[in-house]
Amino acid sequence: MQTAAIRLGLRENLSQFSLLLLVNAFVGAMVGLERSILPAVAEREFDIAARSAILSFIVVFGISKALTNYFAGRLSDRWGRKHVLVAGWLVALPVPWILMWAPTWNWIVAANVLLGVSQGLTWSTTVIMKIDLVGPKQRGLAMGLNEFSGYFAVAGSALATGWMAAQYGLRPQPFYLGVVYTTLGLLLSALVVRETRHHVAHEMRAHHAGEPAPPLSQAEVFRRASLIDRNLSSVSQAGLVNNLNDGLAWGLFPLVFAAAGMTLTQIGMLAAIYPAVWGIAQIGTGALSDWVGRKQLIVWGMWVQAAGIAVTAMTSTFAGFAWGGVLLGVGTAMVYPTLLAAIGDVAYPAWRASAVGVYRLWRDLGYAVGALLAGITADVLGGLAAAVWLIAGITFLSGVVAAVRMSETLASKKPAPVG
User: Fold this and answer.
1) What is the distance between the terminal CA atoms of the chain, rounded to a whole angstrom?
2) CA distance 24 to 74
3) 64, 150, 397, 404: most buried by Cβ count inside 10 Å?
4) Cβ distance 297 to 320 under 8 Å?
């Protein structure tokens, strides 16, 4: 009886979809807690001067989140999406308390290990659950709405913590917000969110009736998404580079802004512009990818990101930094939901969750790679500008790789077969 009542689509599952958007907003807000003030905490409260040391919190966050992403898809297939989502919130509960009262920088780093694990479990699961609910027709729009909810919340939380830090100090008051986020996220996930695995079974019957399900092992899914499949591997490398430059924006941009004489309030505003533009614009770009296709948005999105990073490297004014943040946000909005939608286009439903996990493994390793590259470059070459220019160049080259190697994945936009 339950199976007969299942319908795929955004409108058909609007209440659960909307609830998952709210849950993902709390997931994003947890990252926003650190976005504008943690580098300042490192410098002012723990007297850490080396850029690579300051960015250590992003390195461990990226690695722990990436590895958790890899297993989250497989775990959600085995244990259920809801159980994994609730587990992710339980892991997040101590994070704001550690950030408030950490006696040494190593405690901050440890908190970011927990935050990375939590983000891998919660964000991955909300992505998978939304793909489950909407089916194949509105996948781009669904991913745009999902990423909008998360990254608009990142921006709002970054703005709020920057304002609270300016008013009350760097610790503990700004991190009180994290207690609210984790409590509400856990309660909603445990009490109101419903399991979506049965939607996958329905999609396989309704849309893939004549196609045999390929029996792929986790190792085979990893090979396809990382190396063998030209589309999946192109998406994975673009995702890695996207988060590589997001790690730069998270860890080094506040230091770039401070070096240019920006106040804590201004740094909070600038830290919020990029994810706010990114979050809002994704509503349109995700839906646009359902209409024009995935490839051109991915390629041009990487190039617009590179332009935004270059503008940030060339300026020293608030207006210039804001313009760079807008460009970076627009470019990221073009890419972020489109990459997830492309994974959904290519991967068969039976192993789609695992493919999403592999993609998110590579994507979030970008945080660690970007933080290491930027920190070491800034320390070795003695300046922040060199690190920013390096990341801009890598981002542009990623767009070139996607342009050369990737083909269109949206079925309605694929070239018709010859003959």
Assistant:
1) 45
2) 20
3) 150
4) no
